[in-house]
Design goal:
This protein has 429 residues and is mainly alpha-helical. It has three domains: 78 residues, no CATH class; 125 residues, no CATH class; 160 residues, Intergrase catalytic core (hpI Integrase, Chain A), CATH 1.10.443.10. It is 55% helix and 2% strand. It has 19 helices and three strands. The protein has a three-stranded antiparallel sheet, with no helix packed on it. The longest helix has 22 residues. The radius of gyration is 24 Å and the shape is globular. The protein starts with 10 loop residues before the first helix and ends in a 9-residue tail after the last helix.
């Protein structure tokens, strides 16, 4: 390709910076390889880029005030080839990245651990941090450790991360393998505590929390898809249907469903909205004790819009904006206990049990996490062939080096949508 005639199109004008980064890794890097250049070690010259992608240069300058060199620095190319640091190049929080790198260097250089040991620890921590970021919408592992005041929230974030990991990683199929994984991660946290750089270890008693310390009588049971479908079809009121969608289809806690407010909803994102194009919930500061600040609404948007229209029609200007309002509650919305009672009544009417007992909303949320882990695995499987073409045995290399965060998020959402669609439909009479 000698000019960008084939790629120079109006789509440049629709690209945000993340899209430009994805375009670089997917299109420009591929063209570089075709010309005998190595994008892992060099960036294209201005002349080469101008010859191949003139429109792209103009777009960077016009919309972001970036030269090609500034753009390369912005997206971090070429990648750092240093063996010890490159595995954590995806970590945005600089202090966390430096702490991980420093820890692994100490294992190798000061403690004299075998390279195989260091490599195993590196792989475990990489997967853990990636999953923590996906689940909690941040990769800052250090700030929450500066005071034990917020330790319960951080322990919950870590537990949610392992909730996904245990479904994501097929090797974590026994209590022994799960305990070993926790211990590998714990070594990093304990290192911070030992040297006075953290007030506590958030993995403390994690094995007991999951029942991995012994043979448990339970193993975090979850509702399955058929049971969720039955619950939704049993729900006769808009409030009950919203409750089922909220915990099972959006992965929310019952308290979060109860407190949902219109100010948190973006149902028609702008084209340049970085959280779009799907509708989403945006939790403000202190509105969520742990978990991502935004939650994509992959299902149930029509139900949500109908609920808003109905409340507007019934209450007009007197409506307080809560999706599950309660005039008798000081909070303005129904209580969590009320939501749990409604959920329990639904399970009874639908005849749904888990291990012979009435399921709780938490079991619906666990379905969401199970589906999320499966979706991430399928995305990785989809890129295996591409990885092989790039000479790698791992699809993670492609996912990390050639896809932007926006692209990875899009692929995960597509897979999740496939699992969730059809669960929340009323059976035909």
């Amino acid at each position: 390709m000698s000019t960008d005639a084939a790629t120079d199109s109006p789509r440049y004008s629709t690209m945000d910076l993340e899209d430009c980064e994805a375009f670089y890794h997917k299109e420009i890097a591929q063209e570089m390889r075709a010309d005998g250049l190595n994008p892992n070690h060099e960036t294209p010259t201005y002349a080469w880029l101008s010859d191949h992608y003139r429109g792209f240069i103009a777009h960077l300058s016009r919309n972001f005030d970036l030269s090609p060199g500034d753009f390369y620095a912005e997206i971090g190319v070429p990648p750092n080839d240093d063996e010890d640091t490159s595995p954590f190049a995806f970590v945005d929080d600089q202090e966390t990245r430096q702490a991980l790198e420093s820890y692994l260097r100490e294992l190798r250089d000061r403690q004299g651990r075998a390279e195989s040991t260091v490599a195993t620890r590196r792989s475990v921590l990489r997967r853990y941090v990636e999953t923590y970021q996906q689940v909690n919408d941040t990769d800052d592992l250090l700030s929450p450790l500066q005071s034990e005041q917020g330790s319960s929230e951080e322990k919950a974030r870590v537990a949610d991360t392992f909730d996904v990991l245990r479904h994501l990683d097929e090797t974590l199929n026994t209590h022994a393998s799960r305990r070993k994984y926790v211990q590998e991660v714990r070594q990093f946290y304990q290192h911070r505590v030992d040297f006075g750089e953290a007030d506590y270890d958030p993995t403390t008693r994690l094995e007991r929390r999951f029942g991995w310390d012994s043979t448990p009588d339970w193993d975090n049971p979850a509702l399955d898809a058929d049971q969720i479908q039955r619950l939704y079809q049993t729900a006769k009121t808009p409030a009950d249907r919203l409750l089922v969608i909220g915990v099972c289809g959006w992965g929310l806690r019952p308290s979060e469903v109860c407190a949902l407010h219109t100010r948190q909803l973006t149902l028609s994102p702008d084209e340049d909205d970085p959280e779009g194009p799907d509708s989403y919930i945006d939790f403000g500061e202190d509105e969520r004790k742990n978990g991502p600040g935004t939650v994509a609404l992959l299902v149930g948007v029509e139900e949500l819009e109908a609920r808003i229209d109905d409340l507007h029609e019934k209450h007009g200007d007197d409506w307080n904006g809560y999706l599950l309002p309660s005039p008798s509650s000081s909070s303005g919305h129904i209580s969590t206990e009320t939501a749990r009672r409604h959920f329990r009544d639904l399970t009874s009417k639908a005849g749904v049990t888990v291990d012979g007992t009435a399921p709780t909303p938490k079991m619906g949320r666990r379905y969401w996490y199970t589906a999320y882990g499966a979706a991430v695995r399928r995305v990785a499987e989809r890129f295996k062939d591409i990885a092989e073409e790039q000479g790698s045995n791992s699809a993670d290399v492609v996912l990390d080096n050639y896809l932007s965060k926006a692209e990875k998020r899009r692929h995960r959402r597509e897979e999740m949508r496939g699992d969730l669609e059809g669960l929340f439909a009323v059976a035909e009479p």
